[in-house]
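To: structure subgroup
Subject: Chain for Friday's discussion

All,

I'm putting the inputs and outputs inline so they're searchable in the archive.
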Amino acid sequence: MDLTLKAQRFANEAHHACNQRRKFTGEPYIVHPAAVVVLLQRAKPTPEMVAAAWLHDTVEDTAVTLADIRREFGPTVERYVEMLTDVQPRSYGGERLHRKNANLQHSAQACAEAQTIKLCDLIDNSRSITDYDVSFARHYLVEMARLLAVLSAGEAGLLALARRQCAEAVERLNRRYGNDGWFDTLWQRYEAHLKLDELKTGSAAK
């Protein structure tokens, strides 16, 4: 079976098995990996990149393990999925700020292929984020902006799109609810815990 089709079916089954839904819309979760795959076409991806895009949330959110990914899809796809999997997911517990900064460090060390997929993930997740929970949107957009500062190895066009979309979302929130300096305040809270200039980006060391 074609690698990308196999990954699509595998991801669909994994997310369906745990009845995972999108956070605010309640749609079947597979709509998100599907959107990531569509965005990824801008970067002329390899089949392994497309497979990883389909699978990027399976280890983090379902019963699938990295060993499963390696067995079914090989070491390259496993490597990409590992780089796209949070090292401290929600189930880890603790303060969100600490978890997100740990995951930021992980993303900063990802290879160019994985960073490109991550950009697509961020673009899709932020498309309509300002339409729902305002507090969550503010935190997410600060976290996104910090990620974009370290995803410099990702495809240039997607990086530019992600930066533009993030800036536009921040501006929408400011127009709707006023700008009381929330972005800078939250940024400094994250920065106090982990300074961006301390990170080494794009090493692809893993």
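Points worth raising on Friday:
Residues 83 and 110 are 6 Å apart (CA to CA).
DSSP finds eleven helices and no strands in the chain.

D.
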